[in-house]
Design goal:
The protein is an alpha+beta fold. About 20% of the residues lie in helices and about 30% in strands.
């Protein structure tokens, strides 16, 4: 059967992924309506669901609050609208009229359905897009709106898609919240009746929420249960609204923008929403995470097959106190530890030696680097490492040559205070001249200095998000800003195919599938405390793969929390992602340097499992007991188990960790101890890994299949 099929007699469309089905139809009013999202169906079975719309429950009710593919603001609809428009004569309601469809293959292994509609009276076209892949259960959805008339149209809200779930007795919502240095804290809460809104109003994805949701009936766990989920590929302000209705239904709608934003649509103009991808799984939260990880690796990341190098970053060692001699000394020690990429962080450019001055003047400081960056780059390359550099292209200090030349380049409104945070203002990347300026100095910087890696930071949420010298500037700004940001990165990578980029926004303030499609990894959090990172990384890994998760080993007491944990524990936590080193190596003892070099070498022996293996979570960070993650080769030939324990309590049971994804007929040898285990015992009866006594104990168990 085709992955996308249609039954003309019933009007049912059926999309089939390797394990799931998605069905919809156009109802008697012309509106695209949801039928099913879940286990596999045939077209005939899906047609059984295509009954006429039920009558309202009472004369006070209109259409059900959920159940349409893109609920509009029009008619007797009282749920959350996904599409709200205002026409030139003030009319706001939209009425569907089908105008055709297209099915094509945009790439090998992918099939796309485009359902075309128009308003019954006004010149506005709406096309709903659905894309499925042969190797994934993730369904990508987005909408395209086109003004075909001679008068402007205003989009008051234009979500990417709405998703409808079947009726259940209860529903639970999983999502992450946080703040700077405490990102991606996982929450699983009973879904209340009414509307629950997750959003960012900050112009960036934000530390406070992330644009993904998971819903289950309250009975799913790590290994069992149905889970419906979605993730938005957008790196600016966004909103996802989850609904639970009195009739037992649930659904959600989401897209770019925040409350109060509008999108002008001039005659002939077209607006394409970002993709809101959805996924249904039957294997609990673990299967959901693994399916998202596989999708990100196969269809999002630009270089998914690469193995990310061990990096060293200078920030926590030096702060702004950066000079050539100090960086050369750190580079020599980093190379001796086994680092493969040396990244010089903030403090290298212009007069930027503190917050509030010099940001935006992107030339090497003549006093700190009298001969430019070339001597440092040459020495880093001679030591066998790649060279990386921190940049923050989107912000500027008022005390800078750039701002003095172009005060009009920042986000601002006339007659309003230009609010400073961190002594910074935000450059208006929606302006083509600003985007071209950023692209110009970045591509010259990379080319002139042989730079291999950029840490692209953005430390400043939007305020006074205006664009006075552009008609409807404030309404155009946020969407154009993100598109131009993407464009600068895309142009830069096209110029320099070997360049690799880390997404950063004061830590994890800009992590989403949109930015990951243009970068190679993300800085998870400015909080490098290993104890906190266990929780931050647990939430991050619900959607995003370890291959993208940068994690550092830094000094103790930790700069942020003041906590001290053993070097071994810090390494084992950071080894769960892309390992980095961030301490002041000039202060490490010989014993610490030797232990660190040994642990770096250990990571290199297993990082193919961490970065390319399949993740299982034998035990989450739910209490003071051990937490563990497992990475297994796709063919089951080997596995890595990382275990961390905070503070043991006398008399508490030692949990058994049951491993997953192993070859059930195989036996596995512990690479360190030589002990041989049966896969059946490891999977069904479990393993109690040996942990050192005391607080902050950890271990890494590398299992290799016995020939």
């Amino acid at each position: 059967m085709s992955v996308i099929s249609f039954a003309p007699e019933t009007g049912v469309w059926l999309l089939r992924t390797p394990h799931t089905s998605y069905a919809l139809r156009i109802d008697e009013t012309g509106a695209p309506c949801h039928l099913a999202w879940g286990p596999r169906l045939t077209l005939e079975e899906a047609a059984e669901l295509a009954t006429a719309s039920p009558p309202p429950l009472s004369s006070f009710e209109g259409r059900p609050p959920v159940g349409e593919e893109l609920p509009v603001d029009g008619g007797a609809r009282y749920g959350t609208p996904s599409l709200q428009v205002r026409f030139a004569d003030g009319t706001r309601a939209f009425e569907w009229e089908a105008a055709g469809h297209r099915v094509h293959e945009p790439a090998p292994g992918s099939t796309e359905l485009a359902l075309e509609f128009r308003d019954r009276h006004y010149p506005l076209q709406v096309t709903l897009h659905y894309r499925v892949h042969d190797d994934s259960d993730v369904i990508e959805r987005w909408s395209v709106l086109r003004n075909t008339g001679e008068d402007p149209v205003t989009l008051l809200r234009a979500d990417s898609a709405a998703w409808t779930l079947p009726a259940r007795d209860d529903y639970r919502l999983s999502h992450v919240t946080g703040q700077w240095a405490a990102e991606t804290r996982l929450h699983r809460d009973r879904l209340p009746f009414g509307e629950t809104v997750l959003t960012s109003r900050r112009g960036i994805t934000s530390h406070y929420a992330n644009p993904w949701v998971m819903l289950d009936a309250g009975d799913a766990d790590e290994d069992h249960g149905q889970v419906w989920s979605a993730a938005l590929a957008w790196s600016g302000s966004w909103r996802v609204t989850v609904q639970r209705t009195p009739d037992g239904r649930a659904g959600f709608t989401g897209g770019a923008g925040r409350d109060g934003m509008t999108q002008p649509l001039e005659p002939g103009a077209e607006f394409t929403t970002p993709r809101l991808a959805g996924l249904y799984t039957q294997g609990g939260f673990g299967a959901t995470s693994r399916a998202w990880h596989a999708y990100v690796l196969a269809h999002v990341l630009p270089h998914p097959d690469e193995t990310r190098p061990v990096l060293y970053n200078s920030w926590e060692a030096t702060g702004f106190d950066v000079d050539e001699a100090g960086q050369l000394a750190l580079a020599a020690r980093a190379a001796a530890l086994g680092a493969e990429l040396y990244v010089m962080d903030d403090g290298w450019s212009g007069a930027h030696r503190r917050e509030g001055s010099g940001l935006g003047d992107w030339t090497p400081s003549p006093t700190r680097f009298p001969d430019g960056l070339a001597p440092l780059v040459r020495e880093v390359h001679r030591l066998g490492m790649r060279f990386g550099l921190w940049v923050e292209p989107e912000s500027v200090s008022p005390d800078s040559d750039l701002y003095r030349r172009h005060p009009e380049w920042v986000l601002h409104f006339p007659h309003r205070t230009r609010t400073e945070l961190r002594g910074q203002l935000v450059l208006n990347f929606a302006r083509p001249d600003v985007a071209d300026w950023a692209y110009g100095w970045l591509t010259r910087l990379v080319a002139d200095h042989g730079i291999d890696f950029l840490k692209w930071d953005m430390n400043r949420p939007f305020s006074e998000a205006g664009w006075p010298d552009q008609a409807d500037g404030a309404d155009h700004l946020e969407t154009a800003y993100v598109h131009n940001l993407y464009g600068v990165i895309d142009r830069l990578r096209a110029d320099h195919p070997g360049l690799r980029i880390e997404a950063c926004s004061g830590g994890g303030g800009r992590v989403d599938p949109g930015i990951l499609a243009r970068t190679d990894q993300a800085w998870t959090s400015d909080n490098t405390d290993a104890a906190d990172r266990v929780f931050i990384q647990h939430g991050y890994g619900q959607i995003y793969p370890s291959r993208t998760m940068a994690a550092w080993v830094t000094d103790v007491p930790n700069q942020l929390t003041g906590r001290s944990v053993p070097l071994r524990f810090r390494f084992h936590v950071a080894m769960a992602g892309v390992l980095g080193l961030g301490g002041d190596l000039s202060r490490w003892t010989d014993a610490e340097l030797a232990e660190g070099a040994d642990l770096v070498a250990q990571y290199k022996r297993v990082r193919h499992l961490v970065q390319h293996g399949i993740l299982h979570r034998p035990r989450g960070p739910v209490d003071d007991g051990p937490a563990a993650v497992q990475y297994t080769a796709a063919d089951g030939s080997e596995a890595l188990l990382l275990v961390w324990r905070r503070s043991p309590r006398h008399g508490s049971p030692r949990p058994v960790l049951r491993l997953r994804g192993l070859d059930p007929a195989a036996r596995y040898r512990d690479a360190r101890t030589g002990t041989v285990h049966s896969a059946t015992v490891l999977g069904e009866y479990g393993l109690r890994p040996e942990l050192p006594p005391g607080d902050w104990a950890s271990t890494a168990v590398h299992l290799v299949r016995v020939p």
